[in-house]
Amino acid sequence: MLTWHIPFDPRHEKAIVDFAATTGPRAGSYEIDGQRFWIKRIEKQRWINRIQKGPAPKAFAADLAALKFLAGRGVPVPQIVAEDKGLFAMRDSGPTLQVILRDRLGTEAERVAAFAAAGKALAELHGMGISHGRPVPGDICYQDGRITFLDFENYRAHRNRPKDFRLDLIIFIFMIYSFRRDESPEIIAAKAAYRANDPGGIWDSATEWLRGLRWVDTLTKPLQWRADPHAREFKSIPVTLRAFGV
């Protein structure tokens, strides 16, 4: 039975129940009065995904619990509309940074504003003593000047430490470079915004930590020479190191 986090609306119920009856992908969407909503359910894993990500039910439960907890802390996360065993529905939060950058949505000034807002929001999240766990561009949305963080499957309260903030920051920068390896205005804005709002030496900590990993660039050179998309993330290694002055 669905548990509602907004006033009951039979249109929501029908859309969610209809989706639950299908055997398709783990996420789907529907619209009501021009507003898009998303439904997420437990992923059906192949054995390799289970090894890489761990049990899907555990990750799903962690994501839902984190969204509820973090909403109570004032973290910008999606509004949960309803939930049931194995699925929940949430309000759309706009396009992700990945889509904005890949599809060149809006003007350059609008894209720069989105990435600056993301850098600032991540720094503010760390300032609240909270680590996202994996803040990749595909899990950060931007709409009407507001950043929303998605997908907290990797969130664990015991990982809210400075070294986890450092890893968040590195993942954030590294994954942006995996889509654009040049110093685009969007990337420059994201880096500058984080540094301007750095809650306590996180950028410098990341720089020092990465100094000990310069050998990774040399080791992965043969992989970096491969054609995209197979080498996309490997090719991000040297530009990420340079971004931190390493």
Cα Rg: 19 Å
Task: Based on the coordinates given, report the CATH architecture of the largest domain.
Answer: Orthogonal Bundle
Form type: globular
Order of helices and strands: EHEEHHEEHHEEHHHHHH
Instruction: Provide mean pLDDT, rounded.
Output: 92
Q: Largest sheet at a glance? A: 5 strands, antiparallel
Beta-strand residue percentage: 5-15%
Which keywords apply here?
two-stranded antiparallel sheet, Transferase(Phosphotransferase), domain 1, five-stranded antiparallel beta sheet, single chain, about 250 residues, globular, alpha+beta, 11 helices
Structural features, described:
This is Aminoglycoside phosphotransferase domain-containing protein. Pfam families: APH. With 246 residues, the chain is an alpha+beta fold. The protein has 2 domains: 3-91; 97-209, Transferase(Phosphotransferase) domain 1 (Transferase(Phosphotransferase), domain 1). The chain is 48% helix and 13% strand. The protein contains 11 helices and 7 strands. The chain has a 5-stranded antiparallel beta sheet with strand order 1-4-5-3-2, sandwiched between helices. Strands 6-7 form a two-stranded antiparallel sheet. Strand 2 and strand 3 (35-41) form a beta hairpin. Helix 5 runs parallel beside helix 7 (185-196). The chain starts with a strand and ends with a helix. The model has no long low-confidence stretch (mean pLDDT 92).
